[in-house]
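$ ./design --mode recover --in tokens.txt
reading tokens...
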């Protein structure tokens, strides 16, 4: 008996010793060291033959060619040290693109970021045969250079005008000459298009390289928004050391004037530009240009201002005459996913798009006469990414949330809409990058408790090899005591089943009542609750004794059209109801302290935090980073998609505005914003704080100088998360 007791004691002691040897997550691991950051493949590009791919390596000094099949390094296609003619300023590059014939490589460095997708850079053309690096232009940085399909020319934008460089002769000429800051933009989108339609290039070459189609934005009537700039640091602006400067740009707020847009085609040979006739162009958007495989057929997507009618036009570049090939109408709104998922097939007789005609995102095949041939996919699940069509095998490839809204799988299906095959093998989150000939795909898989693994598969789903298994990350993570995600569902009082996850504190004891921080974003078609790898601030908080919970409420994605569009016209209402119901549900759990529940979020999530503290007394604290506080302050495209205009839906705007709920605020509120936020303007926090002051409500506020919506630069991110952590430790 004594011997058994001794063994038991030793076993317990050894277990405690092993437990004590595990490290605890520190904030530095998240904000500075990148301890749990996974390795991926940088600058992956498939080569034309589909048998090889390239990556950017050695700190941006080499482009290396690999075999999909064997993984062997086949060649080094670009090496800074071996360039015969290299400008002195090119010591490394940030990115690259091959010319269509792969004889040249367009590389760039010295990046100046503008907004979310746009940037200026110094571009260079690398002639592989001669190993020479030639500047694309000598008179200022460029934007969005794009090779012609024959590889002889590059069109690019500088100072809102489009230029054409003929590589054979080294000559450059202007295609447009009316570009002007805050007035006329050619070939690149204005601020609101870039932010809400998610792209930075508004020009496309015809397949025969004879024409360049582009969108012209006239933002003359768009009202201007401005904010002050200070000297600051990271970056430092010495010119504002004594007197602050002003940044001014055109930003159309909900219900206000948008840019007037038009579509033009420039003919290279004749040097003529013709405007396409697309019918009534008042209060419309042109979110995409898409050439078909016929150079006489330019596809133009036209969306009405309410964004509930989408038309696909086919325009003739020579005459400018167009006709409508497809019209999609919705009672509420067209999802933005449709815009990138229209593809013309190589046979010249068909096109496909991903739409919600039956209530879920599915693939539809149409003839070039605009007649529906068939629905390719079907079922109560959503396609979440369309990868393309293999003309030889007559197979479509896509990502879907078929097995669960929390997961993603990769599939193929034939053109008859039969024989759907699951190509990804592991359960969790899968995303694919297909080779140009669809012979292979690179799949990145992870799950909540498994590090990302990057693998090469054949297009039939056969594993070829593993490129990156993140073994070092797995081993490093094993030295930490990492709180794990646990997924759950619950049903609200309205009978709505919601998905969530919780991260329990270390050494969790079900007999102890813990404080809770609810973490959420909640915006339309977003998802936070995913079976996907990530160790971040939430695990840090759980390591410090907090139960962290996230729930995707109504309006979020991968659950079909009805769930996604249920918040229409009343943005913020049902979403906040669901977060409040989450707090109600958590309060029933024996291990939750109902008097210590907090909520936080960023952007739309900050909006949720603010509104929840005024609609419910469930929350002891709320942290709102860069919150929208009144949708009247936000942009046209995003806001009107879900709310229509303030002129048509004043109640929807005002009834769900934290500014108009200030007198009902309960709990402690912490507002955080960047003074140079071009997206969700600092105006939101300033006007909200004024209403809180007049309502006699105490609150905390912090402003980051010169910081945009992402609030980063230098030590900024570490400071932000340290500050929020300390606020939680003190008040929750």
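writing sequence...
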């Amino acid at each position: 008996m004594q011997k058994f007791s001794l063994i038991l004691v030793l076993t317990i002691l050894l277990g405690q010793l092993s437990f004590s040897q595990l490290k605890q997550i520190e904030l530095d691991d998240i904000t500075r060291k990148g301890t749990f950051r996974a390795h991926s493949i940088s600058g992956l590009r498939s080569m034309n033959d589909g048998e090889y791919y390239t990556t950017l390596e050695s700190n941006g000094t080499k482009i290396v060619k690999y075999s999909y099949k064997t993984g062997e390094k086949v060649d080094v296609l670009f090496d800074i040290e071996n360039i015969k003619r290299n400008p002195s300023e090119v010591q490394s590059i940030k990115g690259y693109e091959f010319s269509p014939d792969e004889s040249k490589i367009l590389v760039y460095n010295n990046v100046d970021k503008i907004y979310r997708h746009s940037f200026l850079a110094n571009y260079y053309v690398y002639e592989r045969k001669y190993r020479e690096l030639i500047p694309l232009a000598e008179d200022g940085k460029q934007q969005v250079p794009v090779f012609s399909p024959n590889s002889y020319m590059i069109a690019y934008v500088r100072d809102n005008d489009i230029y054409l460089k003929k590589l054979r002769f080294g000559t450059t000429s202007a295609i447009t000459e009316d570009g002007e800051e805050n007035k006329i933009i050619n070939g690149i989108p204005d601020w609101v298009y870039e932010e809400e339609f998610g792209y930075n290039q508004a020009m496309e070459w015809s397949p025969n390289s004879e024409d360049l189609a582009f969108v012209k934005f006239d933002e003359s009537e768009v009202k201007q928004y401005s904010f002050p700039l200070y000297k600051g640091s990271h970056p430092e602006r010495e010119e504002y050391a004594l007197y602050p400067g002003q940044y001014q740009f055109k930003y159309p707020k909900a219900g206000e004037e948008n840019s007037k847009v038009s579509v033009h085609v420039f003919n290279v040979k004749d040097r003529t530009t013709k405007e396409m006739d697309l019918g009534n162009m008042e209060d419309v958007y042109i979110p995409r240009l898409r050439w078909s495989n016929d150079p006489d057929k330019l596809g133009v997507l036209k969306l009405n201002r309410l964004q509930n009618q989408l038309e696909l036009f086919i325009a003739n570049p020579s005459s400018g005459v167009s006709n409508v090939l497809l019209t999609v109408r919705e009672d509420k709104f067209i999802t933005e996913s449709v815009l990138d998922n229209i593809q013309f097939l190589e046979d010249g007789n068909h096109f496909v798009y991903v739409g919600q005609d039956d209530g879920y995102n599915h693939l539809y095949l149409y003839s070039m006469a605009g007649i529906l041939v068939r629905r390719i996919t079907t079922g109560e699940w959503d396609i979440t990414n369309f990868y393309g069509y293999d003309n030889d095998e007559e197979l479509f490839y896509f990502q879907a949330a078929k097995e669960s809204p929390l997961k993603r799988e990769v599939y193929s299906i034939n053109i008859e809409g039969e024989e759907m095959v699951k190509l990804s093998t592991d359960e969790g989150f899968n995303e694919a990058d297909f080779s140009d000939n669809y012979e292979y795909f690179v799949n990145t898989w992870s799950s909540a408790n498994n590090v990302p693994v990057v693998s090469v598969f054949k297009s039939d789903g056969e594993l070829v090899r593993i490129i990156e298994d993140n073994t070092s990350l797995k081993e490093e993570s094993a030295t930490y005591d990492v709180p794990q995600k646990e997924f759950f569902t619950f049903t609200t009082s309205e009978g709505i089943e919601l998905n969530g996850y919780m991260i329990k504190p270390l050494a969790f004891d079900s007999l102890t009542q813990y404080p809770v921080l609810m973490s959420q974003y909640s915006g339309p078609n977003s998802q936070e609750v995913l079976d996907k790898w990530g160790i971040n601030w939430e695990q840090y908080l759980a390591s410090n004794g907090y139960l962290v919970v996230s729930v995707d409420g109504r309006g979020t994605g991968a659950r079909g059209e009805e769930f996604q569009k249920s918040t229409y016209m009343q943005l913020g209402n049902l979403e906040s109801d669901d977060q409040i119901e989450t707090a109600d549900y958590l309060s029933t759990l024996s291990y939750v302290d109902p008097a210590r529940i907090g909520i936080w979020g960023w952007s739309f999530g900050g909006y949720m935090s603010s509104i929840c503290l005024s609609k419910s007394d469930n929350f002891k604290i709320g942290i709102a980073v860069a919150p929208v506080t009144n949708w009247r302050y936000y942009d046209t495209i995003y806001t009107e998609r879900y709310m229509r205009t303030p002129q048509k839906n004043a109640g929807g705007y005002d009834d769900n505005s934290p500014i108009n709920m200030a007198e009902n605020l309960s709990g402690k509120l912490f507002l955080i914003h960047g003074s140079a936020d071009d997206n969700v303007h600092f105006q939101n926090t300033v006007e909200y704080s004024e209403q809180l002051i007049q309502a006699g409500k105490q609150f905390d506020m912090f402003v980051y100088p010169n910081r945009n919506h992402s609030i980063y630069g230098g030590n900024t991110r570490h400071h932000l998360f340290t500050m929020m952590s300390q606020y939680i430790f003190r008040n929750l």
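exit 0
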